[in-house]
Amino acid sequence: MTAQTDTTGSVTTVYKVSGMSCGHCEGAVSGEISELPGVTSVKAVASTGEVTVVSAAPLDEEAVRAAVDEAGFELAGQA
Q1: Facing residues of 68 across strands?
Q2: What pLDDT score does 7 carry?
Q3: For helices 23-34 and 61-70, what crossing angle results, to 10°?
Q4: Is the dihedral of CA 59, 31, 44, 12 positive or negative?
Q5: CA 46 vs CA 6, 54, 55, 60: distances in Å
Q6: Residue 1: what pLDDT?
Q7: Cα–Cα distance list, 15 to 30, 50 (Å)
Q8: Which of 45, 52, 54, 67 has the fewest CB atoms below 10 angstroms from its CB?
Q9: DSSP letters along 15-62, please?
Q10: Which DSSP string do the residues of 51-74 spell out, in sequence order?
Q11: pTM for this entry
């Protein structure tokens, strides 16, 4: 698990998402994950398949999986 808590109490987690290939893909994944309660920042990078999520508390991985599925992609797990 690569979740880290910083000095402000935020948790940063990096997920691997398969199937992203462009900026539109990044936007779709970021948009769905950013709607989860407690999420303050999402950065998706199609070239690496990594999605960095900053949240107020650790996120339920199944909720993240559902958001990624809703965007049309597959959550491969945490990076």
Answers
A1: none
A2: 56
A3: 130
A4: negative
A5: 25, 18, 21, 23
A6: 43
A7: 12, 6
A8: 45
A9: EEEES--SHHHHHHHHHHHHTSTTEEEEEEETTTTEEEEEESSPPPHH
A10: EEEEESSPPPHHHHHHHHHHTT-E
A11: 0.90
